Amino acid sequence: xxxxxxxxxxxxxxxxxxxxxxxxxxxxxxxxxxxxxxxxxxxxxxxxxxxxxxxxxxxxxxxxxxxxxxxxxxxxxxxxxxxxxxxxxxxxxxxxxxxxxxxxxxxxxxxxxxxxxxxxxxxxxxxxxxxxxxxxxxxxxxxxxxxxxxxxxxxxxxxxxxxxxxxxxxxxxxxxxxxxxxxxxxxxxxxxxxxxxxxxxxxxxxxxxxxxxxxxxxxxxxxxxxxxxxxxxxxxxxxxxxxxxxxxxxxxxxxxxxxxxxxxxxxxxxxxxxxxxxxxxxx
Amino acid sequence: xxxxxxxxxxxxxxxxxxxxxxxxxxxxxxxxxxxxxxxxxxxxxxxxxxxxxxxxxxxxxxxxxxxxxxxxxxxxxxxxxxxxxxxxxxxxxxxxxxxxxxxxxxxxxxxxxxxxxxxxxxxxxxxxxxxxxxxxxxxxxxxxxxxxxxxxxxxxxxxxxxxxxxxxxxxxxxxxxxxxxxxxxxxxxxxxxxxxxxxxxxxxxxxxxxxxxxxxxxxxxxxxxxxxxxxxxxxxxxxxxxxxxxxxxxxxxxxxxxxxxxxxxxxxxxxxxxxxxxxxxxxxxxxxxxxxxxxxxxxxxxxxxxxxxxxxxxxxxxxxxxxxxxxxxxxxxxxxxxxxxxxxxxxxxxxxxxxxxxxxxxxxxxxxxxxxx
Lengths: 283, 373
What we know:
The complex is a heterodimer of chains A (283) and B (373).
Chain A: H1 2-40, H2 44-47, H3 64-71, H4 73-106, H5 112-124, H6 127-140, H7 147-171, H8 175-183, H9 188-216, H10 220-226, H11 234-243, H12 248-273
Helix pairs in contact in A: 1-12, 3-12, 4-7, 4-9, 5-7, 6-10, 7-9, 7-10, 8-9, 9-12, 11-12
Chain B: E1 2-13, E2 16-27, E3 31-35, H1 42-50, E4 57-62, E5 65-66, E6 77-80, H2 92-102, H3 107-120, H4 136-148, E7 154-158, H5 166-183, E8 186-191, H6 194-200, E9 203-208, E10 211-216, H7 218-223, H8 228-233, E11 240-249, E12 252-257, E13 260-263, H9 269-273, E14 279-284, E15 289-291, E16 303-314, E17 318-324, E18 330-336, E19 346-351, E20 357-360
Parallel strand pairs in B: 3-8, 3-9, 6-7, 7-8
Antiparallel strand pairs in B: 1-2, 1-4, 4-5, 9-10, 11-12, 11-14, 12-13, 14-20, 15-19, 16-17, 16-19, 17-18
Helix pairs in contact in B: 2-3, 2-4
């Protein structure tokens, strides 16, 4: 009997540890978002409380920092820049990455492993240490302070992801489907456009969204390649504002702008990450 | 006219000789099954005919054209994969239309064929469904319909029934047979299931380790297996085997075995003549061993042996008895299910001398079968 009791307690304790660790993980994600949103709508009295504890929710919530942002003419240009660079990065990475992913995913290529290793090597180093030689290189080709430079820089970062995600999308298509089409008389192009591409679309969309987000909130490469020059992105704008030590609520508002698409797309991304699209074709 | 001819085909995958000098001919309109255990090379052979696998050596003729180097697309074949390989992003109708569209068939012909296929395979009403939203049996029929609308010279089927449950499989076998009868296409069918092979084929090629052990009608494969392997692989419950020595005495010919002297039928005396004194493997199917009380009179060719019951398995309509004879020789036979047997009970059984097979120990060949493949 005492044995049973102790094992019951053990189970109970185990359960509590589980719940606690889940709550902790959720808090890790939620608390920063909460702080961000809270600061972005805070009135100055709720930030500089003169020694009193900072309230959990502002005394007088206000959208002033947002309306201020909208009156700043530079802000619109910055958003447009971010969008242009992100979309162009998506275009470049997909254009280069999808064919590479197709070949690596569906053919036995010599030195495949070596190539894959080479691909991720860019990301094996911290961005801050790879950015210096790359900037050096870009400057030599006159790519600094240009859209093209920023796009190529971001593409460099996104390409490994596009290739890896795309590769697994192509790999997951059963080769039976390809061979079936072949026996039925389809050539390589028909097979690619009618069978493989439609079936890998969910994976490719995921890769595209991921690339967009990567470019959208990228800071280090943008900072080195664009500086704080003519072309500014949202992240650079935030950095620029930071230098003037503006009220925290303004910084928080900019951060909200940077974060919203990330959160929205991440939720959308989940749908495409779920497997099982090819179910029903095989067995 | 032959629809498909394989001439001394060889195939090596890595260090493994998958197909070793195999020759077959399939007549126009014939239903031929490649039957064998997994790893015997039957699927590889089918894939070589389809053009999905290269042929190392030998010739493949489809119609009267040598097809070794003709790409899959241009062989005018259709194949149904074991997995069915339906295109998951296309509806049933689009799956069926796919091959016709890429072959630039006029739209009105496509429509006509689609209607025919939906009707022939009882798929009407499912046109707009996706493969994942139809049942296994329906998927199998879509795969067949998609293959047949192309009017191929040869239809290749790679274990198309292996994913169906037993009831559905029986239905599908009937269906396939009916369709073969109606359409009259040449079919090459791959399976490891002997029931499917027996039920549907006109000829069966029994494959083992890349070699064709026998190529004959289902009946001949069952009654007169050419090799020891074919004898052991075909038939359920499996054939009984034991060693013996061929002897001929005045009026009698037979084999001396641990069970005693077993007589063989008179008609076979001549063929056994050459093997007198030789060591052979004796085979008899459980179906050819009869319980003495079941038969009013003993035939001259029958041999009586006494066995001790070891195990009784109910098969439903009959029982399978596993017994031991003299010198612990195992003997399986069938008995009516209403006879209750005790373990250890002694029984007298008749071995049918007209059905006993003798296999040369060295060549494993059946000494009674004609010297042909």
